[in-house]
User: What shape does this take?
Amino acid sequence: MSSSANQRQEALRLAERRSNLEAELEVHLELLQSHGVTLNSALVDREGFPRADVDISAILEARARIRVIRNDLKTIEGNLARLLQDVFQTSGDDAQVYLNGSASTPDPFALVKSVDAGSPAASAGLHEGDKIIRFAATGPHPVPAESLQAVGALVQKSLDKPLRVQLLRRHATDDRDVMKLLQLTPTRWSGRGTLGCFLVPI
Assistant: This one.
């Protein structure tokens, strides 16, 4: 099995582990919410006695587990970010790996303001609000485009050739970004340009 395939398998394994942890995290957060408390809410009354209106034992257990899960997720996210970077640079496959943004995530340079229906960008899965980290040609050792000017030049010479797009997308259920890798092929279509999306600098 190739190094790229091994990286893909490891990334998918970590992504699955991350999804399982996120599901468990949601359960514990919902438990806290059902008791009307947060990670930092006091569990004693004004006189210093344990509150009788909540299940203190369950809350303490949930809080402890939430902290462990968040630490585990932070480690997984860092490993996934590094793996995604390797896959992005070396893989020619149509890979899609969802990752959480972290301190090691490169800064995005462009925001997707709009995506035209039926366009190459829409077909590739690009969404309004996505934050672009880089464009690059497929194949070994691509030179990434990390500015709007560089993207324009790359797209112009890549008609009908797949490009890999690394981006951040806001998670659907919480206030976090996830990193995603898409394959987008500039193509002449019935609408404007060869991508069918409007990017603005960040």
